[in-house]
Amino acid sequence: MFSRSAARAAQPLKKHVRRYATEAGGAGGNSTLLFVAGAAGLAGAGAWYFSRSPAAVAEVKKVVVAEPKKAFIGGEQGWLSLKVSEVETINHNTKRVRFELPESDQVSGLPVTSAILTKFKAEGAEKATLRPYTPTSDEDEQGFVDLVVKKYPDGPMSSHIHTLVPGQTLDIKGPLPKYEWSANKHEHVALVAGGSGITPMYQLLRGIFKNPDDKTKVTLIFGNVTEEDIILKNKFDELENTYPQRFRAFYVLDKPPANWAGNSGFITKDLLKTVLPEPKSDNIKVFVCGPPGLMNAISGNKVSPKDQGELTGALKELGYAPEQVFKF
């Protein structure tokens, strides 16, 4: 029924099948039957495919290549009232709040280096409070989006988010594009962050290292008050251990513990000169994000979301050009 020459021709396929088998199989007729069944199945599938109308075939292709539905599509899309599903206390002033997307199979749809906008109106207030945040959850995660929020005493939105409990909602919309990123856009990027300014840096890091085609080198300098304030450190440790030739992290504490082995005080020009890629290096970019004091000292504050403002501070003194620096 099945010639010896055909059986010999099927041998490579037999080895391929056994490589993925969950049970050990003999070298007898079972593999031959599997080959015959597979060939028959392929033939049947081919016959079905080519006998369909062009419209039916196009519909099959559409199903195969369909992208996940995006929750945030920008443009004329209105505010989404998203329900809180989880609240995790990270430290004395920081919480991770998880919001359910409208549909369980949706993804956020946010491009790398973009944010979302939050809104709430306090009782008796004339205007609503609006604040941008960068999610810390992966853009491809289905069904939810996470915000890691540090509470500031004079921050109306951060204080409000810290009061939220599961079941309550917050109005959110997006995306808010920040910097147009593509794989290998720069050979080496430096991330200078303070406090909650780490979230857009983490988003960029995640986008770089989850893309196998992106070979960008990254240096992170992260300043905080105490060791407890270093949020997402376990994520940075994991990246540093996984990509030791491409990622380095340096931490600076204003109030370090007695056994602290990192840098103390503030992020200084001398530290930046030591760890950043030199301004004369080819194709580099320095990203900066943090409270106003840090921005003033490192790069100068931006004027508005569309106006980066003048480059000042330590980066200018070290010889970096305005086009080499981006202020989140």
From TrEMBL:
Its cofactor is FAD. PROSITE patterns: FAD_FR. GO terms for biological process: ergosterol biosynthetic process. GO terms for molecular function: cytochrome-b5 reductase activity, acting on NADH. It is a single-pass membrane protein. The keyword Membrane applies. It catalyses: 2 Fe(III)-[cytochrome b5] + NADH = 2 Fe(II)-[cytochrome b5] + NAD(+) + H(+). The keyword Protease does not apply. It is found in: Mitochondrion outer membrane. Residues 77-182 form the FAD-binding FR-type domain. GO terms for cellular component: mitochondrial outer membrane. Pfam families: FAD_binding_6, NAD_binding_1. It comes from the Eukaryota. InterPro entries: CBR-like, Cbr1-like_FAD-bd_dom, FAD-bd_FR_type, Flavoprot_Pyr_Nucl_cyt_Rdtase, FNR_nucleotide-bd, OxRdtase_FAD/NAD-bd, Riboflavin_synthase-like_b-brl. FAD binds at residues 131-133, 148, 150, 157-158, 199. PANTHER family: NADH-CYTOCHROME B5 REDUCTASE, NADH-CYTOCHROME B5 REDUCTASE 2. Belongs to the flavoprotein pyridine nucleotide cytochrome reductase family. This is NADH-cytochrome b5 reductase. It comes from Cylindrodendrum hubeiense.
